[in-house]
Amino acid sequence: MTTTAAAATTKPQSQATGTAKRAGLDYEDVVVAALQLVETRGAEALSMRKLAAELGVTTTTIYHHVGGRDDLILALIRHSSAQQAEIMIQGQNPADRIQSVSEHIWSSALDHRNVTALAHQVGATSLLAMPLELALARELQAAGLSGAALRDALRAILMCTAGFLVVAFRNEASISAEYRSSELWSEVIDEQINAETTQALCEPPDVFLLFQQSIRALILHFITAEPSPSKQRPSKQRPSKRATHD
Predict the structure, then answer these.
(1) pLDDT by residue (tens digit) across 119-145?
(2) Domain boundaries along the sequence of the chain
(3) What global pTM score does this model have?
């Protein structure tokens, strides 16, 4: 009976809370609640029905404030993007500061992996990362790069980061033990590869350390490289039409 009484008193409290939320609900409230839902439960948990239940309102109210689900997804991605852009860039020299931004891009993607996955699903990865890309561009320009050189450096860093994130996001437990890299290397017998190397390749990778080292090498390559003349692809010449003679 005590349990039933507790349940009976809890339900009206929930309804009262929902009424209070409904009275003062605005666009940002809905977006923030949607973002929290994705962060804690994953992108698949985001539905208008579940969001309405979280806020104690009807689905009609949600649609009224934010439009459809696609509109809501873009809104929460923009909101998350703005939050991630609030970073403290550390470093006393250009290379360290560029490294700091690059590592923040890495950590933001991992710390908010559900939002990252959602942005990837809807093709809005660049929208999510744009403020951080802008911060990276500023630091690259402060290091002396501009134009095509800055463009190439920024894209190389982003592509390198994306590649390492694929590995970081991968669930090793989902890979059959016999097909894991460490297991496959343990069975390798090759006269051209010594035992020390084979043994080292059986060890699991330190993904973040390798990421740091790779990004550092890229940064130093671009900010210390001598400017090279732009290379133009050879234009394809159309075969000239033969003159016709009567």
Answers:
(1) 999 999 889 999 999 999 999 999 999
(2) 15-82, 90-224
(3) 0.74
